[in-house]
Structure to design on (754 residues):
DNA sequence: AGCGTTTCCGTAAGCGCTTCCCTGTGCAGC
DNA sequence: GCTGCACAGGGAAGCGCTTACGGAAACGCT
């Protein structure tokens, strides 16, 4: 008689999972009452209420989200879409993969901000990435539209036209993108932040040359930041560099690569390197150290974002703090009002940012109290 | 007569979004045929097929996920739940918040691994965090169960009993947790990894004392790692320290705090500090530098996980590489087989890890003037 | 007591899909 | 020309819930 699992036929749901009918039966009421109790509507009599709740408790009932969504026309889900560097986890070159992957750090924090804000309204996040080489991410994103009440698009997921088309079907908010007639864009104040930072290094420190190590070429944030640095350099009448040779792709490996090539080709290193984000600044600093350059004594380096490790490295990183989580939260909140049927007040919301002066620009001596910097070298 | 929107009563969906009926009408077929075409079932005639696809294209139709899920009993969604340090984004102390938040780095990478694997099967991730102070996360998690086909639980979300209760209703996989009779646990080989690492610093380098800077007290990973270090220390007959004074809470700030107190209280610093993860190791190293200690010359420090920044800091961090993304992918794959109705082969899957020797243990001279491979070893 | 209100709750109609079942058509075989 | 069969595709049921509607019960008032 020991015949466990002889050949049970690949079933979906062996247990026909309990429904609201089961609860109704157990409680001796109608399904309508169960629903009302569960949703706190139209205050049922306390006694009925108790009966239902007891039945729910006893059976361990959890209402099916799909059925609720279908019926109430609200899924309580918003999708978040971002671009991911590589298609496969099992990429051949794991090292390379990791390096690319770390450019996602910023997004992770952003997503967390969205998530926390969403929880407050009882919404959950449907997270989805599209491959950076995906030709038409439109299809994938459309599928998500079917699973959610609204969509938050990170940088560079869809073209402005794609965004418009999507936004006709479902509320859309973009992060660090560009606003369209149908979607709202949320962004940090790149111009003010980068200008302040550039003015600080050029003005306060008086360095005599500067470069912008760029992020992804098609990222609006990147373009704007680079332009800001250039403009400040011109205002100061100082030499400025950027372009294809200065493409750090937002990653530590990318930043290091730029420096490596620079040195190998014997080109001069500018006195200041303004990086598009913190990750690439980390790579730059590390590579400079490797080659025997001192930061900030020989070269000053700055970042952007103020990710948490920025203050835990030596030299600690001078950067521009973006209210990352707040950006995410605001994205959700905006989307939420759109889902509720209101039309958003503005097409774009710009959040203030703030220069954070640490050591890598030359502001603070590295090892404050004691022995000379044992860190760097 | 200019009475635009006199007082339209807060509608949900002004546009009664198109349905499969609209497509059917446009294509001149029945909804059954549309459904069949869309799902590739029972090969309809090419001509019909084209008509339908053209209609879909023309209208920009996207099937409603909730309706599909309700009908087909498959949501194509898995939930991922993790603990989040603080409740509110707008926490008063932003600095503090960030520090806590960076302990989430590991999870983000893990989640990415899950996500990529899920995409391969057409599944999406429903991301949800529970507050670390939440008393009974069971309710929140139960709600998620209603929205998904399976659940992946990070470290310390539910008690083993809670996991069992949940796993009776829906497939559950835990990450770095403990296996139960109904759920599967996926974990890196903490014991082997930590033992190898400890043997390396104690054996190969011959250091004479060691401490374990712990992570969260109730994290299984943390407990096991600490135990491994202790055992190796005992095998070598060397002094070992851990305990409440050595609680780094997995964060850079936590690691720094431990060192700060240690120094302020004038207690001796062990020759080696094995940290529970990379983040806290970063904090430790930074604080040691601040106080004038050299790493690895005065104190050797190691991490765990091999997050990407580990090789972009100076000194680069000796650590144990976990196949983080692979862990996540495996979690999904396992969950997927469970959702498909198969029972998992094992209650627990342990993935191999690997010691990565860099500078912070004393292995490599810091400023390598060389050009070549800055990578692993 | 009689009537109008209000409250509570059951009935049933969907929500937008998938899929079973069955009809209608075209075609091969006799 | 008739029967039998394969197959494309339509009708309709049903997934598990919310909610409009309306009946019954309970209450307040004259």
């Amino acid at each position: 008689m020991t015949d466990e699992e002889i050949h049970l036929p690949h079933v979906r749901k062996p247990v026909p999972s309990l429904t609201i009918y089961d609860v109704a039966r157990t409680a001796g009421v109608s399904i309508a009452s169960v629903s009302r109790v569960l949703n706190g509507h139209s205050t049922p009599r306390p006694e009925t209420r108790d009966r239902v709740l007891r039945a729910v408790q006893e059976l361990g009932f959890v209402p099916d989200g799909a059925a609720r969504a279908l019926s109430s026309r609200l899924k309580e889900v918003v999708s978040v879409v971002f671009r991911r560097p590589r298609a496969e986890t099992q990429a051949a070159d794991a090292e390379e993969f990791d390096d690319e992957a770390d450019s996602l750090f910023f997004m992770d924090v952003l997503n967390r901000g969205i998530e926390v804000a969403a929880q407050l309204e009882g919404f959950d996040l449907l997270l989805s990435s599209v491959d950076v080489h995906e030709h038409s991410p439109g299809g994938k994103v459309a599928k998500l539209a079917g699973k959610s009440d609204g969509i938050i698009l990170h940088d560079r997921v869809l073209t402005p036209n794609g965004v418009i088309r999507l936004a006709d079907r479902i509320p859309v908010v973009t992060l660090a993108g560009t606003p369209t007639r149908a979607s709202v864009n949320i962004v940090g104040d790149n111009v003010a932040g980068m200008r302040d930072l550039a003015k600080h290094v050029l003005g306060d420190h008086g360095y005599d040359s500067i470069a912008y190590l760029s992020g992804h070429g098609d990222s609006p944030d990147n373009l704007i930041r680079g332009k800001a640095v250039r403009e400040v350099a011109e205002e100061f009448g100082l030499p400025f560099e950027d372009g294809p040779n200065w493409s750090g792709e937002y990653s530590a490996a990318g930043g290091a690569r730029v420096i490596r090539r620079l040195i190998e080709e014997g080109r001069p290193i500018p006195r200041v390197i303004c990086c598009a984000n913190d990750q690439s600044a980390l790579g730059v600093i590390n590579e400079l150290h490797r080659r025997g350059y001192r930061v900030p004594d020989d070269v000053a380096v700055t970042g952007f974002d103020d990710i948490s490790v920025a203050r835990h490295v030596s030299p600690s990183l001078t950067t521009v703090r973006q209210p990352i989580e707040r950006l995410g939260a605001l994205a959700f909140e905006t989307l939420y009002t759109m889902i509720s049927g209101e039309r958003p007040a503005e097409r774009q919301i710009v959040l203030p940012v703030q220069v954070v002066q640490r050591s890598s620009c030359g502001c603070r001596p590295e090892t404050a109290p004691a022995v000379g910097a044992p860190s760097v070298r």
About this structure: Confidence is low (pLDDT under 50) at residues 1-14, 87-97, 367-377 of chain A. Residues 29-33, 36, 42-45, 48, 67, 69-73 of chain A lie near DNA strand C (CB under 10 Å from a C1'). Chain A touches chain B through 92 residues (CB under 8 Å). The two ends of chain A are 73 Å apart (CA to CA).
